[in-house]
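dumping the sequnces here before i forget
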Amino acid sequence: MTDKNEIVIALLGQPNSGKSTLFNGLTGLRQHVGNWPGKTVEKKEGSFTHGDKKYLVADLPGTYSLSANSDEEIITRDYIASGKADVVCILADSSQLERSLYMLSDFAGIEVPCFLLLNMSDVAKDQGKDINAKEMEDKLGIPVVLFSAPEVKKYDSFYTALEQAVDGKTVLDTSSLEKKFRDIPEYSEIRNTIGDYKDGNRTGMWLAVKALEGDEPVTAKIKAELGNEKASELSSVLSKCDKGIVKAGECKFAWIDELTADSVRKEKKDAGLGKFDRLITHRIWGKPVVVLTILLGLLASFIPALPLMGVGSAIASATAPLNDALLGIGCPSFIAALLCDVFLRCFSFVIQMLGFVFGVTLVFGLLEEIGVMARISYVFDNSMGKLGLQGKSVMPFLISFGCTMGGAAGTRVIDSWGQKVLTIALSWAIPCGAAWAVVPMLSTLFFGAWTPVIITVILIVMILHMWLTAKLFGRSLVKPSERCGMIMELPPYHKPKWGSLFRFVFGRTKDTFFRSFKVVLIVAVVFWLLSFTSTGTAGDSILFKVGHVIEPVTMVFGMKWQTFVAFIASSLGKEGALGVLSTIFSGTGSITIGSMQSADKAANLNELLLANITKPEALAFIFAITFNMPCIVALAATYQETHSAKWTAIIGSYYTATALVLAGIAYHIGMLIW
Amino acid sequence: MQELLELLKDGRSRSTKMIAAELGKPVEIVERDIEFLERTGVIRRIEFSMCGSCSGCSTEDGKKTCPGCMPQDGFKNMGVMWEIT
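..and the predicted 3d for all of it:
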């Protein structure tokens, strides 16, 4: 009761239980909003009159429980403990009573008149739930009202319950709940230690449960009140408590389930797994199905790529006529060459690549959007264990299919440094978005219809690579430890939102276009200048001379010096390789300085590449750039996340070395085939 | 809930539906237990940040990532993962 003779009602409920709607419905415009003293939490009070009585309503912050985990919870429970409220109105969401009644069970043991408002009863009814409030009332000993807060005209039942609670001082019956608590040995011990101690309106039961839950403020208060001897007795009991909070929670939920078992009738729903879920969770078929899904997704992504490849090579074939035309109008030969040989060729390459970017982004975006990607992460969870990693490493890996930098950043959730470094090390083996554009493009160029086979082999090699790398680095990075499984809430399948999906895909493709074009162009200009000679004979340039010197060594890995240089450039970013190819090969024997006529050069760069690189060499090159370090920025990201120059260097050189070894193997296998 | 925690000790991850099926409980009850365990800090929700090159993005609600990072608008439908703390 306030000094203005108002009866104080405290509204208690979890977030979204409809407290604010009720508060507004009751008080209308007679509200006062401020802050709780010393806190940034909003304090809302309002008043209303019903019959001849005046009421003050305190809208307490919406909290999950009455623990001391947040400012909101502390404010709420301190307010109730202070005894300021004459009556507490506890709100629960009727449509999900089994969880929202937790507040009531956590309140149990505080001796303040109260009543229970089962809000959103209309929603529960629509769900086919039939709630018997009268039966609950009998069990709880307090008024229980089925209610719908937005229907202000139907507040009569609320007012009746309110008056009942105030006049009858109805206190929640906790005997059946306490009986459950008593079954926990630790609870009984605490309860016996506390004895008859009460703290204002908080009973021994409430205090004992909070102590069992490990609630520090409550425990400290009890200890201070009980005196030294009892306090140390309590400490020794509490030190033996294991998972007290879970045990107490189980009792509360069991009590709620008993309460609702008889009083709530609902239609049974089938909660079985869907067809696809059953398939992918199958012990034997799960992984093959998922790998096949990824593979088919990758192959499907090539469909939109092929037309753009055509457009790209058409652009490339325009270089020669354009060169002639430019020379014809008196354009300086140097500029004409730069425009045609460098700019236009790079543009052609990037266009050819872009279709793959579009396709891969679309397919993976779609898989994610419809909910398949989350299931992929589920399926590979156990494989992570075999690599010595936690299940959550699967997410950085999935992100690495897009961008290794993102994957490295994704490892921030991994607490153990060793596991983090290992995850990053393995994520390097996963071809990133740029690789998924450059590699299929080159494969299509060299191997045509055999591209799907090449892509499949790359995926298999990727898995083997990761497994081997895990074995190699795992020993020094990860100690064997107990592993707990994760809980996953798989998203429901839903139809893709095509609009937002295409916006995403086009956005990504556009970004990639500008970024790749920049990388390709810079690399191309640098190498064009390096191979530029005043005599017009490319063979005289330093680059070519050095190239010929190193070629005996690079051929061990199946790469001519030109492809080897392209491999080195791919360390900057996979697209870098295209920059090198577009200049060096156009220059084999005929580096153009504009003065030369187009008749001397092959018209099409694609044809030039095919003429100069044999199939085994192409295979070696494809493997070399696929498994080379992702890009220079990924190297920086690795250092940023691992904070270890040593491990960044180890990972960097390891990948350069393995890429060369894989290229060598691919070359020799290629020699056997072709 | 102790049953649920016990179940995960074998190292295998499970979806809420699978847990429900294995424990013979309705999914809503499993979801309620998960909520409780999360609120009380027994399990922890895994929050992924996507972006590596820039420090100013992606942390708060995972919505903002820099254009260099895949996926810019993606990975919203990956469900939720919890681990035992």
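Chain A has three domains: 7-168, 175-265, 286-476+502-673.
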